[in-house]
Amino acid sequence: MADAEDDDLDFLGMAKRPLVPAPAPARTEEPAEPLPYDPELALRFFRTSGTQETIAAGTRIFAEQERAGLLSRARVYLLLEGEVAMTLAGRPLTMMFPGETFGELAVISDGPRTATAIARKNCRLLSLDQKQFLASLKAVPDFALMLISMMAERLRRNLEKLLATNAAPLAPHTRVQGLGRADLADLTRIVGESARMPMKAGDALVSKGALGAMMFVLIEGQVATAIGGRVVEYLGPGGIFGETAMLGGVRRAASVTAESDGAWMPLTKAGFLKVVAANPAIGVALLRTMSERIRVSADQIRAHRPA
Questions:
Q1: 0.90 exceeded by the pTM?
Q2: Residues of the chain falling short of pLDDT 50
Q3: Which superfamily does CATH assign the domain made up of 142-303 to?
């Protein structure tokens, strides 16, 4: 049976209040604080292109394993009034309250729902389908920055949990796929070809403890991310790393080494916002890459939990 943790669930828990508390994992080092959830920014984002909905108490908004189809499209929600209960396999996870969003990972990744959402009270919501989500990102790119910050925090927690397991070393074929060729070409065009940096196998691209203020996009080749000498991720073309530092100058929590020759590109916060505003589909692709990294790390954690 699935447990009630949030390794890769379809809500980020902007101000989440777990109904089933879990012990805090040991920290590899003191992390940077993620960007705080901003309800006013979320409201501005959803109002840009959103559809208002009224849902009666007891109504199921979506169900775990549910997929978008020809007659129903994946939607992300902002709760304006009421309460929504999130459950997994019939077990309570958390409650969503006014001002909080949920359902975003299904829109970003186009995957199945990983939790069930049920209105506990009569609810009023704003919702966005994938097309509306793109339109809102173009108008309010700061929302993507906030999302990537919160996803980076979830990934950090997952990697700490993974380090606490006795998982076998990762194999290179487990690398996380990132942006596709078309998105990488558009990204390079927007940022500028001159930002592209070559790398050689064995190059230390990021050093743990170094001060950073930007994230990086892998254009060609493969890199390995390690914490305490243990590889926790392999990233391929289109993968991103160092995203936490982009949000504010912090010391790197991991080391990244080139596994092959290739190329990479730095992306500052201003550059990220420019890319999302110019081509929101790339913004979604960047968020999808973060979602995939969360999923892969969660799968590894589950594979090594006691039965």
A1: no
A2: 1-4, 14-34, 70-71
A3: Jelly Rolls (2.60.120.10)
